[in-house]
Amino acid sequence: MEKRRVVITGMGSVNPLGHNVAETWQAVKNGVCGIAPITQYDSSKQKVHLAAEVKDWDPTSVLDKKEVRHMARYSQLAMASAKEAVADSGLDLEAIDRTRCGVIVSSGVGGIGITESEQMRCSEKGFDRASPFYIPSTIANMGAGLIAIAFGFQGMCTCPVTACAGGSNAVGDAFRHIRDGYAEVMLCGGAEAAVTPLSIGGFTSMRALHVGDDPNRASIPFDAERSGFVMGEGAGILVLEEYEHAKARGAKVYAEVVGYGATCDAYHMTAPAPNGEGGARAMAQALADGGVAPEQVGYINAHGTSTPLNDSGETAAIKTVFGEHAYKLAVSSTKSMTGHMLGAAGAVEAIFSALTLHDGYLPATIHYQVPDPACDLDYVPNEGRAVQVEYVLSNSLGFGGHNACVLLKKWEG
């Protein structure tokens, strides 16, 4: 079967930097840090006091008030982002075959905040008094399900749950689904809302989170003083569309998706394989899938979590795949601005990658100060750059050894 071309025609996001894509991208260009003291609960009795929260956002400003009452926060973020993405795409929902349209939206932990509050309430009142909306609102696939219901998309609807790689898996899986002829349109991405006492406590006890109180030295990918990631929340949704379908309706195109790699370390529950071996294979797969030579890639939106093992391992993986070209590449981590949004991270970073190509702008790794000999590439420190590149690779590497890489190409029209 001939492989069909797949393009990005719409994007939407609510995240720590903004309530829509335009606001967010301007914040990225301005090098804004979305990290601040936690406001969603009293963190004074815990070690971690910082997070990258979605700020001053009222879901009822974009969603129906009655529906919002029965939706977990991650689903609210997903739905708002999906509405923006569909509007941005210009799709005429009445004119398309919605049995050929699907949804793939990831979430790592779904409605964990509701689980925490219901557990506490039911411990006092009895577990048979649990809310009838508890299960349907908290399961990780409900964000995808609600989006499909809202837009009447009756094709494949699913939710990859692959921790920090989930958003990229969603985009990559949607790309393949269209390319291989199963759909014309896919809404894809990820959503997460895990700034909760239990989530923060769990990651803290793993020693995965930064425990300091200075937002400017909290999420510092590739810096020698990095000491853990900062929890973020948000959602990113993209409209992927088969090229001829998009062309026929005169759609604008942000970028083309040309390759996807997905591997597993099969090594450890949380630690990456030595030298980022699994991530290297995923990057190599994405390049091979797109028929692209390593030297053609100009920028990598790195996973770059600000943990000691991830950043050195990802750097080693990039060197494995790109050889000497690794030192000519720009590699930055936008998690320095957004924190780590878990299942939403890869989706929001796919949006950043598409805009990098569309606008000719490389995002910075902000707050970079102290070089690390194990991390010696060009991390676009502190200041973004106006540079045109032809190909961008977006990396996501998750607990459980899940690795996903999406390769995007600049749209020439």
TrEMBL record:
Stated EC number for the protein is 2.3.1.179
Under the GO molecular function aspect, what terms does this record hold? 3-oxoacyl-[acyl-carrier-protein] synthase activity
Its annotated pathway?
Lipid metabolism; fatty acid biosynthesis
Keywords attached to this entry? Acyltransferase, Fatty acid biosynthesis, Fatty acid metabolism, Lipid biosynthesis, Lipid metabolism, Transferase
- Catalysed reaction equations from the record: (9Z)-hexadecenoyl-[ACP] + malonyl-[ACP] + H(+) = 3-oxo-(11Z)-octadecenoyl-[ACP] + holo-[ACP] + CO2; a fatty acyl-[ACP] + malonyl-[ACP] + H(+) = a 3-oxoacyl-[ACP] + holo-[ACP] + CO2
The free-text function statement in the UniProt record for this protein reads: Involved in the type II fatty acid elongation cycle. Catalyzes the elongation of a wide range of acyl-ACP by the addition of two carbons from malonyl-ACP to an acyl acceptor. Can efficiently catalyze the conversion of palmitoleoyl-ACP (cis-hexadec-9-enoyl-ACP) to cis-vaccenoyl-ACP (cis-octadec-11-enoyl-ACP), an essential step in the thermal regulation of fatty acid composition.
Name of the protein this chain belongs to: 3-oxoacyl-[acyl-carrier-protein] synthase 2
Could you tell me which residue ranges the Ketosynthase family 3 (KS3) domain spans? 3-410
The portions of this protein that span the membrane are: none
Coiled-coil annotation reads none
Enzyme type, top EC level: transferase
Q: Does the keyword Transmembrane apply?
A: no
Family per similarity comment: Belongs to the thiolase-like superfamily. Beta-ketoacyl-ACP synthases family.
